[in-house]
Input
Amino acid sequence: MSLIKTPQEIETLRKGGAILSRALREVRAACVPGVLTEDLDRLARERLAEAGATPSFLGYRISKEDPAYPGALCVSINDEVVHGLPTPSRVIRDGDVVGLDIGAWYDGLCTDMASTVIAGTGAPADQALVADTRESLVRALSVVKAGATVGDIGAAIEKYLNPKGYGIIRDLVGHGVGHAVHEEPSIPNYREPRTARFVLQAGMAICIEPMIARGSWKVYQKNDGWTIATVDKSNVAHFEVTVAVTKDGYDLLTPWPDV
Output
């Protein structure tokens, strides 16, 4: 399994990423007060299937001992960081901060992305959290190019967010993608000395995904075996895109679903 994708593989990832982005755009639009999380998941499955893509999260296991993920879409609400389950009868309420994370296989290759939306009218502090988390991803992308290091990405996110007092989740990171849902390298959203030595090369497909809390970065796993939430119950925002590293920058393979 090569970390360097061929030009043909990158084109396939681009096609799959476009399908994934369109599905997430529709899910974002449907994420309004009163909607059920299972309905959002159903919409995601339908849109992927119509375009010839297969959910990469559905049935996914981190290890053989772990439970299989039951949906195509992770729906993480308020203090839930990632892997929130699209539980039957769970209702999105006005002001909820909702992280929507989705991945798909298309023609044998995988892309991954996430976006956060506030349902209805959000608190000003939550609106700022969402905007700042998204901007931190933009700042991270600005340093991506062949010859840069994974450490440069985390440093760019920290430089933007630390003065604002947010908690940058440390137990969860970005990653490579393409031949598998998760590939090397791991991409922390903070300065981590070991990652400073991993040099990005043209042709790598990577997912950058800042996960940012209004309070502490410390997290725990809920009893459902999947959902990760903040210990102090502070709200979280999460954004993610898949890009291909190029000589002079990056190629966005999963278009932003909110523009």
Q: What stands out?
A: Residues 7-252 form a domain with the Creatine Amidinohydrolase fold (CATH 3.90.230.10). The first strand starts at residue 54 and ends at 55.
